[in-house]
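Recall the central idea of this unit: under ordinary conditions, the amino acid sequence of a chain determines the structure it adopts. In this exercise we apply that idea directly, starting from the sequence alone.
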Amino acid sequence: PQPRILPRTAPQSPGTYPWRLNITATVFWVGEDATERNPVANHKSSWDSAWKESFGGFDNPDPLHRTMDFRPKTFIPRQNPFYVALPYNDVCKGEHKPEASRVIPWFHREFSGKGQSVCKGRWVQIIYNKRSCFAQWEDCGPFTTEDWPYVFGDKPPVNTHNKGAGIDISPAVRDYLGIPGGTAIVHWRFVEFYRIPRGPWSKWGDNNPFVNRDLGPGKRALQTKEDRLRQQQEAIQRELMKDPAKLRRQLQG
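Accordingly, the structure predicted from this sequence is:
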């Protein structure tokens, strides 16, 4: 099947973004050395020059060296082992790219300072064979960091290497989804943190709002829930005020 991007006008749930359908996913991992398939070593990421150290070590992709709860056997990861790479970096030489504020849907809401990425740590939902997984965006690729028309727009990936791969997934994502090899056809979309259920992706990581509530998305998600509850209560009160008799009955129990 050919890659397809659902239009922004397509029906979607609050807190979600349009699906990218039939996208080739390839597996990558923290600490991976450079190869022909992966020309850039993953000891560092686009946003972290010491990614391997920040993660806590080599995220061994060998299933024999991984636990049943989707982490490497030899250490507890200091960051979320459910991570992905997408082919866009919003920052270059300490500045946001010229198009970033225009094409990234959440840019103005998440902007925290000059050259501070608003993409790092964002959550995506990935579906393979009717199984759904959630992961954080922690690196850029495959093969390009400029493909915003695909990542945020309605174009297919520009990359033609590795079967036209449009997303890299970690070993944890691969194993949770039950992907048997190094590539697969998946669907993915961005999802706001408050829409994400708990799962193995909520267990580890100082970069993970489930674990570290001091992170912006975690704090904002809690505030969003409180705002929604308050709005619901205010709406109920407005409806009751339209019917004083009903209000009296409610107050009298």
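Residues 213-253 form one domain.
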